[in-house]
Amino acid sequence: MKTLYGIQYLRAVAALAVVLFHAAERSGEHFAIGAAGVDVFFVVSGFIMIVISENRHLTPLGFLKDRLLRIAPSYWIVTSIMVLGALAGLFPNLMLDPAHLIASYLFIPVASPSTGEMWPILVQGWTLNYEMFFYLVFAASLLLARPLRIAALALVFGTLVLVGQFAAPAGSIMDFYTRPIVLEFLAGAVIGRLWLAGHAPHPDTGLMLIAFAILSFAAIYLLQSNFNTWLCAPLAICLVSGMLAVEKGGALPRIPALSYIGDASYSIYLWHTLAISVVVKAGMIAGLPTAAIVWVGALLGTLLGIVCYEGVERPLHHLIKHRRIVFRIPGRRAAD
Q1: Closest Cα partner for 236 from 9, 4, 32, 36?
Q2: CB atoms < 10 A from the CB of 134, how many?
Q3: What confidence tens digit (pLDDT) does each residue in 167-176 have?
Q4: Contact 2, 244 (CB under 8 A)
Q5: Could you write out the DSSP letters of every residue in 39-62?
């Protein structure tokens, strides 16, 4: 698939927003709107699934295998570090339970014994539970003719949300999978289908959509308003649609650093909380201002993610793909 720089930039911004959200949350500050980066990720995910399947003959099992090998290894490594840290007493608030432990590795939402929330051992992994569910539904849709796939996805996710409004017990697995957030994947898939058909807003309209989304997110933050999927999903859709429109019009600048962060966004998302935890503890012991703790935590969390992208995710990807480990120095060709 041709590199879409707008999608890369959105992945980067979404990852950085989540990092800043966690750095602020763990320091006692307020940046809840940063969690909306997840909404952008889900819309982008639906878009990518449709686009990458367009000119490839994908079987359901082949697609699932590819996605599992792409997502699981790094996630399992970070989860294992959390487990070992808990056993060593480094994470005193992390309680381990066999059922929850197994479910965390298998991407099954189970209530955490530490918090009671439907979170895996690595808390941000709750989004990956959704991703794996998206992949399962999308894999099933590959059995249908291409024109029917969007309709099938709409039927499945629409039905789930309707069930969730009336019949899903709070805190249950049914409640988890019937939340409106699943519609974001569907929205991304629809955008992907429109994109492939050549339907995109005019670049000027795209700029307006981007500006509207950014200003709306800023207003939510400044007013400290409560936000939810029904509010953030439309704004995420505007961002993705707007970026694609601007890119199609040839008006999107090339920003290599932001594109690179987009490449590293998955590792940043997985690893950043480890660095933030250390910075928060050290900063509080040293008596640093809260704002300094937040920004240093966000910076080091991002840097840790980049280091693990180069040192863990990329070598693992090449090992799986080529059965050999390839290490790359940024700016140079890969070498064994």
Answers
A1: 36
A2: 23
A3: 878 778 999 9
A4: no
A5: HHHHHHHHHHHHHHTSSS---HHH
- pLDDT 10s digits, 196-238: 999 989 999 999 999 999 999 999 988 888 788 999 999 999 9
Q: List C-alpha distances in Å: 125 to 44, 48, 108, 166.
A: 17, 20, 10, 27
C-beta neighbour count of 153 within 10 angstroms = 25
User: Is residue 89 exposed (0-12), middle (13-18) or buried (19+ Cβ within 10 Å)?
Assistant: exposed
Contact of 10 with 265, CB cutoff 8 Å: no
312 half-sphere exposure, CB direction, 13 A CA radius: 20
Measured CA to CA, the distance from residue 240 to residue 233 in angstroms comes to 11
**CA pair distance 27, 82, nearest whole angstrom:** 20
Instruction: Please check whether residue 98 is in contact with residue 125, taking contact to mean a CB–CB distance below 8 angstroms.
Output: no
In whole angstroms, what is the distance from residue 8 CA to residue 262 CA?
A: 5
Length of the chain equals 336
Q: What does residue 259 show for φ and ψ, rounded to 5 degrees?
A: -65, -40
- Give the pLDDT confidence of 188-204 residue by residue, as tens digits: 999 999 999 999 899 99
What's the mean pLDDT in 269-288? Answer: 95
Tell me, what's the pLDDT at 124? 96
- Phi and psi, residue 335, nearest 5°: -135, 150
3-class DSSP state for residue 327?
Answer: strand
Q: How far apart are CA 121 and CA 126, in angstroms?
A: 9
pLDDT at 328 over 60: no
What is the rounded CA–CA span in Å between residue 24 and residue 27? 5
Asked if residue 188 lies in contact with residue 134, where contact means CB atoms within 8 angstroms, the answer is no
Burial of 66 (0-12, 13-18, 19+ CB in 10 A): middle
